[in-house]
Amino acid sequence: MKKVGILGGTFDPPHIGHVIVANEILTALELDEIRFMPNHTPPHKEKTQGVSNEDRVEMLRLSIKDNPKFTLELIELDSPGASYTFYTMEKLKEKEPDTAFYFIIGADMIEYLPKWHRIDELVGLVQFVGVQRPPFTTNTTYPIELIDAPLIYLSSSIIRKKVKNGVSIKYLVAPAVEEYIEENSLYET
Predict the structure, then answer these.
(1) Bridge-partner residues for 130, per DSSP?
(2) Which CATH class is domain 2-151?
């Protein structure tokens, strides 16, 4: 059976924390691949102003291009409206019944799990994999496999703020992403 990790998020922009966590989980669980899945409209966040879905996808592509086990999963971008993990994973399981899916979440989302749409059914579709993300905890009653990964206190909002303030983001994102942001004047306003 194929073992596939799914790392969902807004990736606005993708940063080194995303690829480090993905690589740690890929190795720890001996997965066949990790799919980075940008969401259309997460139900727990307001849509950020500024970059297009195309920009987010291109930055993700640039972030993962050097690892053949990292791929893009665009199923949520192809579905209009809010992205609910239950429906996404239901579609992926129908399409790939012989694949075991490992849904990767940070501690911030572990705390939020009780509010996820149809969470009790979702845990039957995927194996949740959690990683620590300061300052959140990993305490939960849901079945989550915790993976020890380097703790990196970094978020896309920190990067957006730095760009807006004219501060360097070198080493926080892939060099190609830094270049893409600069060339396309993303996050400057």
Answers:
(1) 105, 146
(2) alpha beta
